[in-house]
Amino acid sequence: MSGNRSIKSARILALSFILMIILSITNTNLTPAVAQQSRVTLSAWTSGEATIDGKIDDSEWAAAAKSDVDTLYGRSTVYIMNDARNLYIAVKVRDNNLGDTIGKFDQIVVDLHAPDDNGQFKAGDDSIGCQPPRTFDDAFLTSDGSFLSDSSVDGECAVTRIGDFNHFELRHPFNSGDQQDIALKFGDSVAFRVIIFDDGKVADVFPKTTDSRNPNTDKWGSIRIASAPAALLSNPLLLVGAIVVVIGWVGWIAYMFRQRGKKAQQTQEPELGSGT
Ligand SMILES: [Ca+2]
Ligand SMILES: [Ca+2]
Ligand SMILES: [Ca+2]
Predict the structure, then answer these.
(1) Contact partners, residue 255, CB within 8 Å, separation at least 6
(2) Residues 190, 114 contacting (CB under 8 angstroms)
(3) For the purposes of burial, counting CB atoms within 10 Å of the CB of 253, is it exposed (0-12), middle (13-18) or buried (19 or more)?
(4) So where are the chain's domains?
(5) Could you give the CA distance from residue 134 to residue 136 in angstroms, rounded to a whole number?
(6) CATH says 44-224 is which class?
(7) Whole-angstrom distance, CA of residue 117 vs CA of residue 7
(8) pLDDT per residue over 167-213, tens digit each?
(9) Residues with Cβ < 8 Å from 165, sequence gap 6 or more?
(10) C-alpha span between 133 and 53 (Å, rounded)
(11) What contacts 24+ positions apart, CB below 8 Å, involve 12-17?
(12) How far is ligand 3, taken at its centre, from the CA of residue 98, in Å?
């Protein structure tokens, strides 16, 4: 009887332990996925740096959060991800050419507002952009509503034409130390909009809830700086190894309880026999 009870408690112990592990794993994974609001929120961690060469390779941007948007010439896609230092933004814009003459550029501008407080795009806020082939604009909004280039240009960009698309890739540190840039840490959010120019004119804005002039950032999208996943979760081999170790450990405890139960039964049996 006591042996059976021991096995039962070992099983309960094992089950609660496994449940605890599953809960802690799913909890870590699910918490960031909960949408905080109806605004478009993009957030993704990448362990590999993107190569800013104007080629949005599927493997290179596989980890990115993506959002499709219908633009002037068809469907385009916005990609967002970050590593420990940089925010990476890519936009694959469907277009019939890559306008690269002065005054008629196909270009993008990404306006950023932090903290992400649903407030107005205001003086001092960060704005970056990309013109063909590799002109990276790092600027800030002034109090008269114009943009000035930062004294320190932080980041880079490139755009090339591949098939029916213009591939824009940008890199901007999320905490460059420059007062004219965003200063974010892991878990922080920044409001953003992407303005897409066709032949020098505003053609589209992402997200569609805003336009190129609306300063109310509650209608913009949001980027949240993703944290690196815990080492255990980022490496499937480590995770499988840990589960194997736990199952082995639990099995061993159950085995020990069973052996102890058997031993107790064996020592009780002769006593009962001699009593009759
Ligand atoms: Ca690339
Ligand atoms: Ca800067
Ligand atoms: Ca700036």
Answers:
(1) none
(2) yes
(3) middle
(4) 2-30+232-268, 44-224
(5) 6
(6) mainly beta
(7) 55
(8) 999 999 999 999 999 999 999 999 999 999 999 999 999 999 999 99
(9) 76, 92, 93, 94, 95
(10) 9
(11) 13/250, 13/253, 14/250, 14/253, 14/254, 17/246, 17/250
(12) 25
DSSP states of 37-99: SSS-EE--B-SSPPP-SS---TTTTTTSEEEEEEETTEEEEEEEEE-SSEEEEEEEEE-S---
Please, which residues have CB less than 5 A from ligand 2, an ion? 138, 150, 152, 154, 178, 180-181
User: Residue 237: helix, strand or coil by DSSP?
Assistant: helix
Q: Which residue has the tokens 């006591």?
A: 2
- How remote is the CA of residue 187 from the centroid of ligand 2, in Å? 21
Q: Is the dihedral of CA 212, 204, 132, 91 positive or negative?
A: positive
How far is the centre of ligand 2, averaged over its atoms, from the C-alpha of 16 (Å)? 51
The model's pLDDT over 13-44, given as tens digits with 9 standing for 90+, comes to 555 655 555 445 444 444 444 445 589 999 99
Query: Cα angle at 105 between 128 and 76, to 5 degrees?
Result: 70
Alpha-carbon span 12 to 181, nearest angstrom: 54
Give the pairing type, strands 41-42 and 221-224: parallel
